[in-house]
User: What shape does this take?
Amino acid sequence: MKITSSGKKFPFFGRPFGNILWTVILSANLCAGWLETVNGEQNHLPSFGTGAIKVRLYTDYFCPPCRDMESSLEPILLDLIKDGIIHLTFVDVPTSKHTVLYANYFLYALGEKKDFDSAILARRALFEAAEKKVLEKDQLVSLLTQKGIGLKPIDLKPVYNLWNRHLNEDQIRSTPSCVIVNGESKKIHKGALNIVKALEELKVTTNHALRGGKSAEK
Assistant: This one.
């Protein structure tokens, strides 16, 4: 049994999430013909920013607290990335049996255009689709297309391998969760309020440090 976004046990996948989870899904995609590879593809891992502080955000499109947190989180993440403070990685956690479809198309959206704004636009659309219970591939593609989100099939294996490794290393048990690695310090924050608070504090403390450094230079 595993723990879902609501904190309840859910029998769809075994625990821990990352043990063999995305590897199994990858194999299922291959068998179903979902995995498409384009020769010469560049790195489409869902990571953004050049900062020294690593932030891994674990969410699922079918997790209501994740969806409700998104609008509060977006401007904070944007500032942290713009100021060169963090290196952010989005990690999709399949707490629902439908997550794999959504994860595929999130990555296909990044295959078409990989920048932070495009990633946020795709995430918003996918959270909206999940809330509307869009469960069929054609319906999901139609919704994304209507919102002006381009799609380009890519090799999903590198991303799934990365997600698998992070899920194992961070021992994620619920969504939303956020891991912040700052030098030798690694902290895991769980729940929407705690995650927003932690990232707001990170923004404040790093901005103070940056201003202090500039003052010292003068």
